[in-house]
């Protein structure tokens, strides 16, 4: 007799949601659950939900769920997403720290020395990039977040710059000084010098002397024409090169060079 053998070929379990066990293609457990019992010849897999602080994010045949990571503040970690039974909790380094793959930990950000500024924008969980302050900018502090600041513009504030800025210090400004008469009657200016004595005012400008005569200064002096014309009238004289700097009574000066 002819013996006929029939072979039953089971199709392979190609889906990510199935697994092969005891010649059967069985269903895996969905995300958020773990497999408490495998399938048998007559029953399918038995799955249970993950417990508190556990998760499973893929179809699986694991006998337990995975534990959520702990965002330990003592290790400079903070929680950015609490996670759930299907999604892992996410942590990040606290402000001022960045993740280092070499030590698998958070490390303190680099601190930029004075004269250097932190490159902005500062990226979260990335180390600080320090750059030298360009001309016109400064940084006087050691910081992992502060960028270089611009020098104070004294001119724009109506002031004068007394100390120029550097890469480590700001410019120093001061109020503009207004010339004031001194006790001896001299007023200093750009190119003029004024002398007040015995009721007369004399302005020195270059080689020209302008004398303003008052009524008191002309008492006893003879001058043509009505006296009203002489009051307050300027008298302009050249300043001879041989003359010394004017000092003393202006009437005496006038008689000397008349």
TrEMBL record:
One of its GO terms (cellular component) is external side of plasma membrane. Gene3D superfamilies: Tumor Necrosis Factor Receptor, subunit A, domain 2. Residues 218-258 are annotated as: Disordered. This is Tumor necrosis factor receptor superfamily member 11A. TNFR-Cys repeats lie at residues 12-47. The keyword 4Fe-4S does not apply. It comes from the Eukaryota. It holds the Pfam family TNFR_c6. Disulfide bonds join 26-39, 29-47. The keyword Oxidoreductase does not apply. Keywords: Disulfide bond, Receptor. It comes from Opisthocomus hoazin. One of its GO terms (molecular function) is cytokine binding. GO terms for biological process: multinuclear osteoclast differentiation; ossification; positive regulation of bone resorption; response to interleukin-1. Residues 12-47 form the TNFR-Cys domain. InterPro entries: RANK_CRD_2, TNFR/NGFR_Cys_rich_reg, TNFRSF11A, TNFRSF11A_N.
